[in-house]
Amino acid sequence: xxxxxxxxxxxxxxxxxxAVPVFxxxxxxxxxxxxxxxxxxxxxxxxxxxxxDRILDAAEIGVVMMLFVIGxxxxxxxxxxxxxxxxxxxGLQVLLTALALGGxxxxxxxxWKTSLVIGLGLALSSTAVSLQLLSERKELTSEHxxxxxxxxxxxxxxxxxxxxxIPLLGGAKNETxxxxxxxxxxxxxxxxxxxxxLILRHMFRVVARxxxxxxxxxxxxxxxxxxxxxxxxxxxxxxxxxxxAGVLLSDSEFRHELESQIEPFKGLxxxxxxxxxxxxxxxxxxxxxxxxITAGVLVLLLVKxxxxxxxxxxxxxxxxxxALMLGGALWLGGEFAFVVFNEAAxxxxxxxxxxxxxxxxxxxxxxxxxxxxxxxxxxxxxxARPMQDRRAFDDIPDQTPQVLIAGMGRxxxxxxxxxxxxxxxxxxxxxxxxxxxxxxxxxxxxxxYGDPTRPDLLRSxxxxxxxxxxxxxxxxxxxxxxxxxxxxxxxxxxVLARARNRQHAWRLMDLSTEPFRETLGTSLEMAEQxxxxxxxxxEAAAQQARRFREHDxxxxxxxYLVYDDDxxxxxxxxxxxxxxxxxxxxxxxxxxxxxSSPPAADPAPRAT
Length: 608
Fold this sequence. Notes:
608 residues, mainly alpha, 6-stranded parallel sheet, 6 strands, 4% strand, disordered C terminus
């Protein structure tokens, strides 16, 4: 196809819309769906698109954005907490797998640099596929799930310097590497790191104060693409620049907002990248070499499974069942391998035919893993689960947020302080950059800038792992909008919401949310102290305040049943007043400190 850019865009979108749902329905990941779509569209398929290399160059922006998002997830503080399993088990997995598979490549008469790239590229597993499999089986928080996540984390880390080193290895092979190139690369990284620390956070604070989402989106894209371009200009990988920018912003209050802004672009462009990789596969060669591809897949799976199984037993200290599940979840190749092998082919470290074979091997392993994982699960289901030695993770606190607070005004801050005092992990979202800046200066490291009524921001903040949502925004309409969104995305979630008045509380109750009227508690405390000042004993005053609260909560629920009928609401309130007076009169006649009747409730409490 030599049509316009619009026609090409329509073809890509149509291919993604058809392929991804079909493969998802079959229980196979989206990455393989994109690869197959690329094969079908490419020169060896329907030949709708012939210039795959040009599209591949443009689609590499998706890889750059993926590395930026990974950088946002890998804050220095998080790495310090998980350093033992990440750098211990993760480092051993990459090292042993790269040595084993690289050694096999070396025996196959490849250059040692080529063998090194092959071994390291195949040592990486698919983060997207592995985490999705563990999540679907609700095993992310299991022992083997946490160890698997630590290993994947290290793989993401090692992929960055690997991408940066490939151009240097290619230059070394061609005897063009000089000390000038090395110092130039180090200087570029220093400029990005130190310049980013001084500039990036201040820049986003200024942009956030404009309250214009499109300007924030433009700024995020400028940072990602600008750092990528600068590093590429210095002769390094464009992805390395984006990754460094992500790490620099990982501890900032804009982390979740940035991730939610970049995620849609990343997903689309990364899908386009995999489609372009599929188009670039020489299908004729693959079909003519089924024995080589089959042997490659078997070697990849068996070598990685064996190493992962042993690492699960030690240093992971898993039982046999957990070690088998760890091996089954991570023995596949990964999407980073496509990036690594394409970069290696670009700098002439890999021949085109070798690259095509490796890409085919990785793609087949990714396609087979969900099916093989089902078989392993059934096989190990009969293995008894002994008491596990949890020492490998005893010193790693679970930092997954259990509570999400939407709105950090006076109401939300109190909830956050109580959770902090109990060391309960939470994440807070606040749409005012001034409030976020002020609270962060007082140590509010868990507070992030963003609009809690946006679904992409909730997902970025980890809402899928949250046990309780606290909606503390002061505007009733925004409050209702956030609750409605949470109910749609997470229908079984526990939601506690701030209510301005009774009408607001009834609307929240319509959404199966527990309302907390913002002035009720302090008003009752003042009423209690007023009774004490008038001569009541503290015990009697506290009891009457407690009874009034119970009565008013009961009235709130009774009025909720008829709140769309004003006459019925007023009549319900009047009946409740008489019941309350009788209750307090009974208390007064039976008590010794009942000189006067307590005040009655408002006959039509419509605004409290």
